[in-house]
Amino acid sequence: MQSQSRRRFLSSSTLFGASVLGAAALNLHPSITQGATASPVPKNKTRTLGSGDHRIEVNYGMGLGCMGMSWHRTFIPDRKAMIALIRKAYDMGVNFFDTAEAYGPWRNEELVGEALAPIRKKIILCSKFGFNIENGQLAGLNSKPAHIREVVEQSLKRLKTDYIDLLYQHRVDPTIPIEDVAGTVKDLMKEGKVLHFGLSEADPVNIKKAHAVQPVTALQSEYSLITRDPEGEILKTCEELGIGFVPYSPLSRALLTGYINPLTKFDPDNDNRDTLPRYTPEAIKANWPLLEAIADFANQRGLTLAQVSLAWLLAQKPWIVPIPGTTKQAHLQENLWSSDFSFSADELKQFTDKISSIKIVGARN
Ligand SMILES: NC(=O)c1ccc[n+]([C@@H]2O[C@H](COP(=O)([O-])OP(=O)(O)OC[C@H]3O[C@@H](n4cnc5c(N)ncnc54)[C@H](OP(=O)(O)O)[C@@H]3O)[C@@H](O)[C@H]2O)c1
Fold this sequence. Notes:
Layout: H1 3-27, E1 46-49, E2 56-59, E3 64-65, H2 79-91, E4 96-98, H3 107-116, E5 124-129, E6 131-134, E7 137-141, H4 145-158, E8 164-169, H5 178-190, E9 194-200, H6 204-213, E10 218-222, H7 233-241, E11 244-248, H8 281-286, H9 288-301, H10 305-316, H11 329-337, H12 345-356
Parallel strand pairs: 3-4, 4-5, 5-8, 8-9, 9-10, 10-11
Antiparallel strand pairs: 1-2, 6-7
Helix pairs in contact: 2-3, 5-6, 6-7, 9-10
Bound molecules: NADP nicotinamide-adenine-dinucleotide phosphate.
């Protein structure tokens, strides 16, 4: 990027960021809407994950990723404000909320459980198992059947509920046959403690083996304009088996929003971006042409970079349901509005060709 236009882009991102922060601060009042009825979301704005008895209907075709409200995104906002935001999301029509035992660990499930308790039966609550947790830190994978059962019991308590709508294995544990994991979740489903089964970052072989034991509703894996690994075999497998796809980090942890630049600092004690090669100042600078391409398209259509990034994911398949994370009501509204934009076939091709021609620097993990 030419230094002048890059400076212009950085300063406009900063200005934009400041105005959005101001709006969010005004909107986040401490009063909490309890038990209100969610705004109706038009039917053409819902998406289905999974098939047959294993399907889930998601408003806006988009959920709310709650992890960053407690973990891994540098700052931890005021707890009451996050509870208000989660409830506000429901008032705005969001019905799909994502958390995990690992986030915090535990703190995020506790937050989400408290926020959603008054509206528990009206929403789809998603959580995950799959790690050992020692001294408050993740300590390796663990999908032993007995451990899954223990984790689910504890998650149910933290989530203040007696069932989890969609329970994912967070990562495949190579020491436990995936069939045993699927069988354990199937038993939990028979007991009514879990309604649907999901996998995260599983490969096609494991997806097929698990699905043969217990039909999988959704695969949750990283997918965005900068991380396109699922294209090909993974999405093909989901399509063949009727499994929905939930892109996590759909904004590449804010990288695709224009809010991150080579001067951005991540708190090493609470931000995994500090350890990921793609978030070094050098990689951010090297990947700037991708942001320019997204900004060019966004500016032409009166959209923000985040909206283009989410609309592009929605345009890939009708059974793709991204879960952008945010701690701000203004960003939440902006992200939901991306479901209003549809690419024409020509512009989708041209935009995708353009971004595909840009070499991405820095591994995703
Ligand atoms: N299965 C897995 O292994 C896995 C891994 C990671 C994440 N997840 C799930 O996926 C969810 C989302 O992923 P993520 O949080 O890693 O990444 P993300 O959704 O790609 O990005 C979140 C970041 O983008 C910022 N942001 C969101 N909307 C914005 C907007 N409109 N304009 C500017 N900035 C915006 C947020 O900051 P603000 O708060 O300032 O808006 C936050 O820092 C998580 O909450 C979690 O539930 C799953």
